[in-house]
Structures are given as structure tokens and as C-alpha cells.
Design goal:
Blueprint: E1 13-16, H1 24-29, E2 34-38, H2 41-44, H3 47-59, E3 63-67, H4 76-86, E4 93-98, H5 100-114, E5 124-125, E6 135-139, E7 151-154, E8 163-166, E9 174-177, H6 187-205, H7 216-219, H8 227-249, H9 254-274, H10 278-290, H11 294-323, H12 333-350, H13 367-374, H14 378-381, H15 390-400
Parallel strand pairs: 1-9, 2-3, 2-4, 4-6, 5-8, 6-9
Antiparallel strand pairs: 7-8
Length: 401
């Protein structure tokens, strides 16, 4: 673990624990009088939304309205529809309630209510001109870490794959992480969300290590491996490894749900400065072609990208192996690192993540185009501990088939 440089970007307030959703209304009251809740159709039908609305309106005297049409993978059209529908409402504060798409929708709606479009002018890093309207992020899955990150991802039909907007201005003002909100998350979604969270932590912990230039955090959202992201990443890895199997097997196990949610939040804090790497870079075109969930693609790819990175990241992977109990303190780094990769494969197999990209309908014919497209995620490719080119990505994809 490096000790010469560290960066953390985080919400002003982060509340964690069972029942903490009851703080949403009071938190919103600190930020304004008019509240827009961004959620999806499934959550809108659950009693929990009425409970939250009553807290905001009756107990805290605020005005609130709900957008409940968030779609998976967050298409651009849905963002624009929400902005058009609620611009006249002119909310002071926006609550994202749901999975990563709901939280990212809230971020991007806040951006477009604060500054002129088109949204495409903000694609990339550090292009948001200043603060956006305050956000309260309330996750109901344990995966993306969007409640604490400076990143929002969307699907633009003019782009081949999903695009990101990365800026510290998008970090929610308040994150409220209540594990009781995840108990209705089905086993399959729990598994792929957890795989995504683990990938965030592993990739941040093994990211490229850059010289500690004082200007770097002002010029790069993802600065690479650093002492503060390492701290959060190792905590996340330990929590997720210890509890994800239990959370998938028994959604009502609140202890396991709490551990996985805390791990996902720590993983978000880790990659919010440390960044992710080629498992995520490759998943973007894979997900665009197969129309499969982000966490599923990342879960399939992570062990293969760890294999590829082994020589460049053996010390980091060895530390992962030791913190999860897959390796002992006296084992050589390469042996301990291999044990960590084997443990990731075993965990993902146990929770139902397939071992091959063939399970999501990819074939050898897809590899050349996917290899080239993966390189377009430059900020992730540059963050990888080993040098990457289209041919090396093709080799990873061949093994993942």
C-alpha cells in the first residue's frame, strides 16, 4: 500500500445503517423546499415510497413530486424527458432512489436543471462548470457505489457504447445507505451488483500508480492507486467476500445485506478517486452489443483481466488474497495473487455468475470489433496496471470465451 499520496472525494454527509431512510426528509429540509424524487416503476409501487413521501411532505413540510420512469442502463431520452417534465417544478433538491440508473438519472437531471444542454458537452472529465442542485442519493442495490462517486453513466444512441460524465460536482451532497432497502433485491440482481462492487474495489486497489503531482487530482478524476482509495478498497473487498454469498442465498439476512451495502459504498469511495480499469473498459462494448447488465459483464471479465494483470499487479493481488483469507502472510506474492484470482472465480461461480462470455451470446466473430472499441474507454485503459492494446484485449476476450 502506497503512503505518499491520497485522494478521497465523498458526499458532505453519509448516513449508513438499517432505518436510516427515515432521515431523508430532514436531510432534504436542510437543502430546500421543493423535492424531486427520481425512481423507477417497480419502486414506485412499493409502500416504501409512500413512507418516504410522507416523511418529506407531512413530517418535514416540503413539497415533493415523483418521476418513476427511470429505465435500466439509463437512455439519454429518459433523462431529457424527466428534465422537460419537471423544469417548471424547479426543484431545490433531487433525491435519487433506486439502483445505479436512478442515482445517475438524479445526477444528470440536476446537471441539466443547473446548466444548459446538450448533455454531450459534458461527456468526459471535469467539464461540469460548477455546482449542481443538491442531490440526496438513496441506493436500493449494493453495486454501483453511485451514491458516493463523481461519475454518471448513460446510453446515448449516437454513441456505440455507454458514455460517462465525471466531475466532483456530481457527487451527491448526502448519501443515505439503508440496507433494509435492499432486502427485496432478487438473488440474481444481488449477485451481479455485488460482482460489480467487488470489481470496483479490486480494480481501484490494483490500478496504475502515478507520481504524486499536486495538480493531478485537479486534472484527473481517476488518479490511480493511492493510500486513501487503497484503504476503502481493502475494507470493501473483505466485507463483500465475507457476506455476498449469504446475501444472495437469503435476502432477508440483514447482517449480510448490511455488510455488502457497506462494502459497495466503500468500493465507490475507492474507485471515485482510484478509478477502475480494463474489466470495465471491455464491458462497455460487450454490454452495448449483448444488451446485458453491466455487473454481469464485469463479473464474467474480472477474473480474466486479473490473470492478464498478474505480473504487473502481483503485490496488490497478493494483499487481496491475504485480506480475504485465501493466502497466508508468508506466501510469495505471485502465489498469494493467484490464490486471490482463484477465490474471485469461486465466489462468482457460487453466486451464479457464468464463467464464459458465450453465456451472453458472444462468439469469436465479435472479438476484433470489441477489442478496438474497448480502447475508446481511454480513462479506464490508462488506469490499468499493465499496458493494454487491442491485441492484448483480444487475448483476454478469447480466454473469456
Amino acid at each position: 500500500m502506497r503512503l505518499d499520496y491520497g485522494v478521497t472525494r465523498a458526499p458532505a454527509r453519509l448516513f449508513f445503517g438499517p432505518g436510516q431512510r427515515q432521515a431523508i426528509g430532514r436531510a432534504a429540509r436542510d437543502l430546500g423546499r421543493k423535492v424531486l424524487i427520481c425512481t423507477d416503476e417497480r419502486l414506485a409501487r412499493l409502500p416504501i415510497l409512500q413512507e418516504i413521501l410522507e416523511d418529506i411532505t407531512v413530517h418535514n413540510g416540503l413539497e415533493a413530486t415523483v418521476f418513476d420512469a427511470t429505465e435500466p442502463e439509463l437512455p439519454l431520452a429518459g433523462i431529457l424527458d424527466c428534465v422537460a417534465e419537471y423544469r417548471s417544478f424547479d426543484p431545490d433538491v433531487i433525491v435519487g432512489l433506486g439502483g445505479g440508473s436512478c442515482l445517475d438519472l438524479a445526477k444528470l437531471v440536476s446537471l441539466l436543471l443547473s446548466y444548459e444542454g446538450p448533455l454531450s458537452q459534458y461527456y468526459g472529465e471535469f467539464k461540469v462548470p460548477g455546482p449542481v442542485r443538491p442531490l440526496i442519493a438513496v441506493p436500493t442495490t449494493s453495486g454501483t457505489g453511485s451514491e458516493v462517486t463523481p461519475v454518471a453513466v448513460l446510453a446515448d444512441p449516437e454513441r456505440t457504447m455507454k458514455v460517462g460524465i465525471s466531475s466532483p460536482a456530481l457527487i451527491p451532497h448526502t448519501a443515505i445507505c439503508d440496507p433494509e432497502l435492499t432486502v427485496t433485491c432478487p438473488p440474481g440482481l444481488t449477485a451481479i451488483s455485488g460482482a460489480d462492487a467487488l470489481a470496483h474495489a479490486v480494480e481501484a486497489f490494483a490500478a496504475v500508480s502515478r507520481p504524486p503531482d499536486p495538480r493531478m487530482a485537479m486534472e484527473r478524476v481517476f488518479v490511480g492507486k493511492n493510500t486513501l482509495s487503497d484503504h476503502y478498497a481493502l475494507l470493501a473487498i473483505k466485507l463483500i467476500f465475507e457476506s455476498l454469498r449469504r446475501a444472495v442465498a437469503d435476502g432477508g439476512d440483514i447482517e449480510a445485506r448490511s455488510a455488502v451495502m457497506l462494502g459497495a459504498t466503500y468500493a465507490g469511495l475507492a474507485f471515485g478517486s482510484g478509478g477502475t480499469a480494463i474489466a470495465h473498459a471491455i464491458q462497455y462494448p460487450v454490454g452495448a452489443q449483448t444488451h446485458t447488465a453491466h455487473g454481469l459483464g464485469v463479473g464474467i471479465l474480472l477474473p480474466y483481466t486479473m490473470d492478464f494483470n498478474m505480473q504487473a499487479a502481483s503485490a496488490s493481488y497478493a494483499e487481496v488474497g491475504r485480506v480475504i483469507g485465501a493466502a497466508s502472510a508468508d506466501q510469495p506474492d505471485e502465489e498469494a495473487g493467484r490464490a486471490a484470482i482463484a477465490a474471485v472465480r469461486k465466489l462468482f461461480g457460487d453466486i451464479g455468475i457464468p464463467a464464459s462470455l458465450r453465456n451472453i451470446a458472444l462468439t469469436e466473430d465479435d472479438l476484433d470489433s470489441l477489442s478496438v472499441l474497448s480502447m475508446n474507454a481511454a480513462r479506464l485503459v490508462e488506469n490499468n496496471p499493465a499496458a493494454v492494446d487491442p491485441e492484448s484485449i483480444k487475448q483476454i476476450l478469447m480466454r473469456a470465451l
